[in-house]
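CORE FACILITY INTAKE
Project code: CF-77B
Contact: R.S. (postdoc)
Sample description: multi-component assembly, two entities in total
Requested service: structural model of the whole complex
Turnaround: standard
Below are the sequence entries exactly as provided by the requester. Do not edit them.
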Amino acid sequence: MEKRPFTILLAEDEAASRFLYLEELEEAGFHVIPVENGLQVLGTLEDTKVDLLLTDIKMPDMHAMEMIPLVRAEHPHLPILVASAFKGMEDDFALKGFNISGFFVKPVNMDALKRKIKEIAGALAATAA
Amino acid sequence: MIILKAMINTATLEIPKNSHPLSSSFHGRFGALTRPALQLGTKEILILFRSLVFLVIVVLLFFNEKNNQAIYQARVEIFLALFAFSIAGMFFMAPERFENKGLLSSLFVADTLFITAGLYLSGIRDTDLFLIFFTTVFISALSQDVKSVFSVAIVACALYLFLQYKTTGEFMASDTVSLVRFPFLFLAAAMSGFLAMETKKHEDERKRLQGMNLILAGQVDTSILKMTEMNRKLKTLLEYHHCVLSSIKTGLVVVQNDGKVRTFNSGARQITGFIEAEMAERKLEEFPENLRPVAEALQRTLAEGKTYVQDHLDLKTTRNESVPVTMETSVLRAGNGEVVGAIATLKDMTLLRQMETQLIRSERFSALGEMAAGVAHEIKNPLNAIMGFSQRLSDKLQETSLKKYAEIISEEVRRMDTIVNDVLEYSRPDRVHKTPVDVHQVLEETLSFLGEKLEKGGVAVERSYFEGLPPVAMDVPKIRQVVLNLVLNALQAMPRGGKLTLKTQVIEGLLPDAVGTESQDALFERVFLQQKVLSIQVGDTGCGIPKENLGKLFHPFFTTKTTGTGLGLSICHKIVHSHGGSLDVDSEVGKGSVFIVRLPMEDN
């Protein structure tokens, strides 16, 4: 069986930012599924297996604070990374106990983001092997 | 003898002395209405005179030349012993018994009989002995009753006649001299009876006066007690009024109709700086220049009888500082409605003005903050893409000049990001997590963090730390940010070097009783409390801040620097306020500035 590439579900309503993440992450060798809002995240997770969720917070249709608990209910161990313009939200996520793997403040330092994803991917590979 | 007694009693008569209420009160208070030092009662006088009679009889019996009839000797002695015994017995009788008229009368009659018996037994028939009956008549006057005196006189006459009969064998003696004696005896009885009655009258009057005197003294005493009580109440009331006047924060200046200052309370002193001693009795036209507005308003009120209110009055204190006050003058009326002066009240409006300013600032801040937060967030998203792509450009571009352009874009985006972050920081709701900390340690950490900068900038540090400062509860990272910001500002104010002063103090001060998020409503409900306050002062010897800029200093986006967002001090201000403290500045152009952080020292 061919080894499935590390798949990232990317939720970002801003087209420019979405495009930026897509370029950067695909270039780094990840498989990226871009979506625009929370509802699409939940829909994708229903029929697709992903290894990581990278999400914005403020999105139309569904805010990440609403979406993440729903995701967690189905996928308690899915690594989630949050990127937001609200620096203050970091504390909220930590306090709510959503088990977030990382928080990035916009503008996101792409190198740091990629380092973090690679770290998670490495850990995943180690568990699988 | 009676006259003698009357004289004694009159001499010792209590003369009413309550012409002066105090002296009477003095006597009354101690229950010691003056008693005669020596007052001979009926008992004593009776004993005295009966003893005299006894002596006379003894002398007559034993030293009379005619007394040579030895056969009577034994019986005479028995008789004398009985008489002496009756005198001695009187010693043991209560003085009250002698007030009894019946007893006295029978005693006198008995005495008369005694004397007669004595004379008869002694066998003396000398008519001169008749004189001794006068004595008994006089003594009987002691009863202070005419009837008993006359009865004694009658008995005496009867006995004398009996003696005569016994001696001569006939009632009417041949010598008329003896008969002439009777009217004399009655005359003496009448006179002594009359004198006795007079004495009795005097005595009664004396007793009545004495009683009245006692009543009067009692009344005066009650009055004095009432007066003392009223005096005490009045004193308490005066003290109370004085305390009220000196305790209220409102300044009070009262002038009389003649324009002279009657009251200048401590509130007025605290506001104006002038002291009561220098203002008392001063006339309106002699008021110090700084208090002219007060004098003028009082003058007008006195002249026109109207109330004046001046809302925005700036008074100059003795230190030439300006104090915003609200002054109200009104007419002072006596109980009967008559105008007797004018009152001016001065209310220090400093705190209220400060609150007004704060309210305006806070309104402006919160509206601005909300808008800024929204804008900042919207900017952040495009910044995210611009930054990312510019970095990608600079990574991928080989040509150096194009690469440089991409790097410039990245750099400028980073600067924009800093500004946006400051705005977000400023508009973010405050969460203060307080932990007790050694403030001096926080200050030292900041200094060592900036050590190199200080040294290079030629800035000397002077510390004036409060000794024994206890740990103070605060959000350490936030206060550290404030201190860092203030020290950095100080350094920037001294580009050619200077002196940085860090001072801590524990003072008693007024701070708004509001912690946490500062809403407009919260500001209205604020109570300014007198409490223990930690003051941290950061001073520099730099360029100073012009007066016109002092008010704007904490406004967001206000800056005089070419770099910077103009949010640094507003963030500091906000942090300090969210701690329930205050941030103030004192500055003089060319000399330097002092920023003062005041934080409440809570007991936790």
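Facility notes:
- The mean pLDDT of chain A is 87.
- Chain A has one domain: 7-128.
Invoice: internal transfer
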